[in-house]
């Protein structure tokens, strides 16, 4: 799936693009699952921040770990190593 790409895109949007300022519109996107949510002050909902992705995550159980990104990198590395070993580069 495209969770890795979506996470990267969210980080770039919130930091680089002034057109889309999701934080200023009180909307954030999870860097791990890509889900959106609105900030609700006092709602008591627990959100998190991933230091690896440098962005917010939605706080769902599966999003507290940076598993999607690590898995994605492992996969890419393995694929690159395989391609090199097979002489496909
Ligand atoms: Zn999430
Ligand atoms: Zn992460």
**SSE order:** HEEEEH
Taken from the alpha-carbon principal axes, the silhouette is rod-shaped
Helix count, DSSP H or I runs of 4 or more residues: 2
CA distance, first residue to last residue: 24 Å
Whole-number radius of gyration? 16 Å
Distinct bound molecules: zinc ion
Instruction: Indicate the mean pLDDT.
Output: 75
Largest sheet: 2 strands, antiparallel
- Which spans of ≥5 residues are poorly predicted at pLDDT below 50? 9-15
Helical content class: 25-40%
Strand content: 5-15%
* Estimated structural class: alpha+beta
The count of β-strands is 4
**How many domains would you count in the coordinates?**
1
How are strands sequenced across the largest beta sheet?
1-2
Structural description of this entry:
The protein has 89 residues and is α+β, with helices and mostly antiparallel strands. The chain has one domain. 37% of the residues lie in helices and 13% in strands. It has 2 helices and 4 strands. The chain has a two-stranded antiparallel ribbon. The protein is rod-shaped. The site of one zinc ion (ZN) has 7 residues, from loops.
Give the key terms:
rod-shaped; binds zinc ion; 2 helices; 89 residues; single chain
Summary?
By secondary structure, this protein is an alpha+beta fold.
Q: Would you spell out the secondary-structure blueprint of this structure?
A:
Blueprint: H1 3-16, E1 27-29, E2 36-38, E3 48-50, E4 55-57, H2 67-85
Antiparallel strand pairs: 1-2, 3-4
């Amino acid at each position: 799936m495209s969770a890795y790409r979506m996470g990267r895109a969210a980080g770039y949007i919130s930091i680089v693009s002034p057109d889309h300022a999701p934080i200023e519109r009180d909307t954030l996107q999870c860097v791990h699952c890509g889900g959106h949510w609105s900030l609700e002050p006092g709602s008591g909902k627990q959100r998190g921040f991933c230091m690896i992705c440098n962005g917010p995550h939605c706080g769902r159980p599966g999003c507290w770990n940076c598993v999607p990104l690590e898995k994605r990198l492992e996969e890419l590395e393995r694929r690159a190593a395989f391609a090199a070993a097979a002489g496909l580069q």
